[in-house]
Inverse folding.
């Protein structure tokens, strides 16, 4: 049944646990591909633009909204082919996708505080997805299709008959339509009829058509239960599938199963929760190896002049055997990101536990770590809705993706075509990877880290945040000890991690044992794009040239200044669940406003001879603007309410 908005919203947020909650030292497993393999996807019958005329030609006068038989019945093979080939392309203008959730009442067992947190997160996730993806909207109410292979005992197979491909006899065992143990309500489904004679228009109504769901382009069913899969996989929090597509192949309905036993032990984090909702929605909406082969080319250069044609097989291995997606927007996104014109730079897909020559539904972690569609979501400050992911949705042919809203993927930015390959990640050719022991810096420089690997990195090391006290931006991590005195560390909101060998000159007793390079926390402030100053304990502000080193008066040793990591990405900031993760609307984005203000400030600084004091006074303006925006968000939250609630093959 469809529940009122308050009940729909909080249960919708149970999707949050789908892929990764940030449990220490645990990689949460996503079993999307395994579960989708077991689902029979129902695809709606094609609806031809000339349906009324064709119905009349075939002797059918049925005008009920639940009617789903092909309008080509009764026509010759030649007539059908001619009409299909001459079908005009749709002229509808894509609009933000409308996502509606539906859940059973028995899921209503959370506290009021939990409901409020979940409601806030699902609002934000759905708002973000709707701002990123647009579709040719469903006209009228959304009606899902019934599986003719379930309700029908046999089909009329003579193509010369009027009832070709229609059901001739009912399956008496037919009860309902389901998806992942969720029973789809009859009210959401089109009707179905039985035609007992091959050429007669007379029919028997087996099930009447339902009312459908108005203002809906995608219907998400939520199922909360401790399933066998939940019990069998300790690291699985939830899983999702798509189970229905429209006549063009776009998913219009899917299910998320939430492992209920995992919810009570999870530590709720708003930012991570929103990101996880988006990850699973993206899977259900089409980022799936099971749909790669159905992607279409709807560009003006496609055959037929503006219509859509099949892209065919879009995944192929590169020269090293790495499976990649080769579509125009994805290739362009990878080439821009890695600053390379290499034609083999398709979107690399995860190869862990994937047979050679087969595809997966996640990006390769070594190349696109931090992407919202990587197999594992790490610390919430590192997760990005990246250009490659939005480019993939653009290339499905079903969506118009707002590519300008992609978040920059700092990982691997400008590193060249070979970045992330197993042959190069271990030879210190990139500062994003590590091979050393000891304390270093996470690549966003918000945390201290230690060099580690995991199953997805396949032996390549990266600096991962320390288990405790790694955040440079937390005041409480400041150490009131002799070590802090000799190293000059400062912890606070504007502090970042720097590789440093600094030692106070008047602490000679520490020089012998503590002068090695390691990650340390110092204050920083921006002076332009990729330009900044740093401050250590007891020092003045000192220029830190990106890609170089700097010395500090009163200290021995050097501080390394990271290049293209600081003062370049306006939306890389300390994690805070007090501030909304994503923009409030498509046209109102304080992060964009901050970026624009920063760019204006940097241009002004470069083109004038302002004093340092005046320059930094101007540079402080964007920060003040950001603070005002944050304050406004806290006082006036903007929310978008969720609306009430043939065999599939791998592209390999």
């Amino acid at each position: 049944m469809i529940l009122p908005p308050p009940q729909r919203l909080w249960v919708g947020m149970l999707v949050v646990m789908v892929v990764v909650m940030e449990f220490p030292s645990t990689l949460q497993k996503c079993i999307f591909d395994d579960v989708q393999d077991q689902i029979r996807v129902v695809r709606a019958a094609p609806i031809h633009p000339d349906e009324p005329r064709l119905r009349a030609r075939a002797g059918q006068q049925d005008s009920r909204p639940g009617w789903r038989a092909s309008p080509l019945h009764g026509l010759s093979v030649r007539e059908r082919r001619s009409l299909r080939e001459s079908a005009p392309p749709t002229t509808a203008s894509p609009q933000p996708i409308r996502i509606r959730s539906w859940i059973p009442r028995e899921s209503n067992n959370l506290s009021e505080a939990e409901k409020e947190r979940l409601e806030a997160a699902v609002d934000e996730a759905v708002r973000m997805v709707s701002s990123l993806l647009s579709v040719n909207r469903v006209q009228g109410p959304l009606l899902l299709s019934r599986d003719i292979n379930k309700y029908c005992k046999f089909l009329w197979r003579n193509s010369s008959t009027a009832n070709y491909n229609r059901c001739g006899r009912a399956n008496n065992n037919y009860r309902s339509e389901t998806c992942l143990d969720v029973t789809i309500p009859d009210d959401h489904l089109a009707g179905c009829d039985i035609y007992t004679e091959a050429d007669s228009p007379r029919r028997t109504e087996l099930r009447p058509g339902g009312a459908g769901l108005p203002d809906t382009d995608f219907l998400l069913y939520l199922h909360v239960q401790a399933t066998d899969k939940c019990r069998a996989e300790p690291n699985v929090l939830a899983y999702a599938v798509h189970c229905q597509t429209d006549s063009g192949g776009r998913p219009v309905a899917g299910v998320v199963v939430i492992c209920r036993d995992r919810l009570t032990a999870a530590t709720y984090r708003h930012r991570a929760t929103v990101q996880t909702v988006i990850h699973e929605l993206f899977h259900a909406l089409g980022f799936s190896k099971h749909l790669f082969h159905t992607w279409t080319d709807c560009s003006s250069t496609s055959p037929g002049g503006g219509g859509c044609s099949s892209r065919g097989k879009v995944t192929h291995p590169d020269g090293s055997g790495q499976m990649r997606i080769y579509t125009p927007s994805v290739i362009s996104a990878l080439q821009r990101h890695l600053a390379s014109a290499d034609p083999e730079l398709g979107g690399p897909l995860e190869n862990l536990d994937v047979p050679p020559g087969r595809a997966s539904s996640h990006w390769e972690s070594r190349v696109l770590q931090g992407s919202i569609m990587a197999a594992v979501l790490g610390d919430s400050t590192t997760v990005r809705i990246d250009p490659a992911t939005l480019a993939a949705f653009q290339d499905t042919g079903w969506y118009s993706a707002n590519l300008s809203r992609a978040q920059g993927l700092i990982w691997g930015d400008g590193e060249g075509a070979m970045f992330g390959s197993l042959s190069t990640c271990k030879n210190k050719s990139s500062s994003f990877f590590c091979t050393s022991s000891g304390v270093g810096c996470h690549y966003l420089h918000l945390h201290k880290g230690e060099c580690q690997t995991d199953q997805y990195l396949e032996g390549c090391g990266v600096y991962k945040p320390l288990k405790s006290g790694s955040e440079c931006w937390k005041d409480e991590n400041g150490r009131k000890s002799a070590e802090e005195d000799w190293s000059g560390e400062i912890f606070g909101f504007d502090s970042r991690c720097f590789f440093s060998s600094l030692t106070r000159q008047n602490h000679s007793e520490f020089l012998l044992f503590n002068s090695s390079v390691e990650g340390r926390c110092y204050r920083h402030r921006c002076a332009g794009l990729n330009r900044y100053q740093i401050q250590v304990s007891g020092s003045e502000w000192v220029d830190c040239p990106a890609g170089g080193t700097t010395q500090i008066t009163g200290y021995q040793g050097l501080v390394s200044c990271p290049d293209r990591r600081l003062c370049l990405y306006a939306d890389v900031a300390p994690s805070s669940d007090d501030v909304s993760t994503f923009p409030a609307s498509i046209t109102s984005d304080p992060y964009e406003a901050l970026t624009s203000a920063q760019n204006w400030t940097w241009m002004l600084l470069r083109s004038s001879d302002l004093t340092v004091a005046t320059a930094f006074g101007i540079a402080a303006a964007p920060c003040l603007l950001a603070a005002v925006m944050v304050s406004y968000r806290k006082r006036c939250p903007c929310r978008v309410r969720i609306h009430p609630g043939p065999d599939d093959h791998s592209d390999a």
